[in-house]
């Protein structure tokens, strides 16, 4: 096997392209997603995303490629078979990677379609709706909890970019595995009503405890931002008032991280559905 060509210059067009793709608007315009890390890249491949290129540091390339673990080897095998693997000088990995240090690999994918029209729901879906969540890390953490609980889909209403590097990282790549779609509130409400999905809004002021609330049947649990909650949004669904639900708390604080709230509500819903 011939020795791979190593990208060594920051002026290389491919390197410059990857650096440019770190900008959110540039990624959206180019319809691309950048993924850092072996596990996250493996999840993206497993989800069926189209790989544009896999970029690995020169230091892991020997006579035989030796990635960190078996899943890394599977990633390299996939990229090699598709003729999409490239080697980058170690000094450049920090430039094309996200954060202060390289996570061993950078992969570029075609951005997957995440629209309501392409979302397929099971007969008795459990859905999380995230409303106006601005921090990508919080979104990623909710996806990680949703994956663990077996949530069927996540809908994002006026939220930060699902494929922001912080969202991908905090989700451990589960943003690619849990079905999702982004839409405005009215479009999303129409979709839920069309599929006979009942809405349930997480509100700290609600008198209904999650332990006493029916979470069975087709259900969408709606969560707002940690700072402002849902406010006046999501009051009705298909002209029917949306019931509120709260998580009882014994301490001095009146709110949790959104990922913690999502996990409690999702796991309780799953428990009731057994």
Structural class: alpha/beta
Question: Count the helices. How many?
Answer: 9
Order of helices and strands: EHHEHEHEHEEHEHEHEEEEEH
Strand arrangement, major sheet = 8-7-6-10-9-13
Give me the count of strands: 13
- Strand content is 15-25%
Q: What is the molecular shape?
A: elongated
Helix content: 25-40%
Which stretches are poorly predicted, pLDDT < 50 over at least 5 residues? none
Q: What Rg do the Cα atoms give?
A: 21 Å
- Overall pLDDT: 90
Q: How far do the termini sit from each other? A: 54 Å
How does this structure look, described?
This protein has 274 residues and is α/β, with parallel strands linked by helices. It has nine helices and 13 strands. The chain has helices spanning 13-20, 24-30, 38-46, 70-81, 90-96, 136-149, 165-171, 185-194, 258-273; strands spanning 6-7, 32-36, 51-57, 85-88, 106-110, 126-131, 153-157, 180-182, 198-202, 219-223, 236-237, 240-241, 243-245. The chain has a six-stranded parallel β-sheet with strand order 8-7-6-10-9-13, with helices on both faces. It has a five-stranded mixed β-sheet with strand order 1-4-3-5-2. Helix 4 links the parallel strand 3 and strand 4. Helix 6 (136-149) runs parallel beside helix 7. The model has no long low-confidence stretch (mean pLDDT 90).
């Amino acid at each position: 096997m011939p020795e791979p060509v190593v990208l060594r210059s920051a002026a290389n067009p491919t390197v410059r392209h990857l650096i440019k793709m770190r900008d959110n608007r540039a990624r959206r315009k180019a319809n691309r997603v950048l993924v850092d890390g072996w596990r996250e890249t493996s999840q993206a491949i497993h989800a069926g995303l189209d790989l544009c290129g896999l970029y690995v540091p020169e230091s892991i390339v020997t006579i035989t490629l030796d990635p960190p673990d078996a899943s890394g080897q599977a990633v390299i095998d996939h990229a090699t078979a598709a003729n999409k693997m490239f080697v980058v000088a170690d000094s450049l990995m920090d430039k094309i990677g996200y954060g202060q240090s390289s996570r061993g690999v950078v992969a570029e994918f075609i951005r997957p379609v995440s629209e309501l029209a392409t979302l397929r729901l099971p007969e008795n879906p459990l859905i999380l709706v995230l409303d106006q969540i601005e921090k990508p890390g919080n979104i990623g953490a909710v996806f990680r909890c949703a994956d663990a609980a077996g949530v069927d889909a996540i809908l994002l209403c006026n939220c930060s970019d699902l494929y922001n590097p912080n969202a991908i990282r905090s989700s451990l790549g589960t943003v690619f595995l849990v079905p999702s779609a982004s839409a405005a509130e009215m479009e999303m409400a129409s979709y839920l009503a069309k599929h006979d999905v009942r809405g349930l809004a997480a509100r700290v002021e609600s008198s209904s405890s999650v332990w006493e609330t029916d979470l069975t049947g087709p259900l969408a649990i709606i969560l707002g931002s940690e700072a402002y909650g849902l406010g006046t949004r999501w009051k009705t669904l298909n002209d029917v008032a949306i019931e509120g639900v709260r998580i009882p708390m014994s301490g001095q604080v009146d709110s949790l991280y959104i990922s913690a709230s999502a996990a409690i509500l999702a796991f309780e819903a799953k428990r009731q559905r057994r």
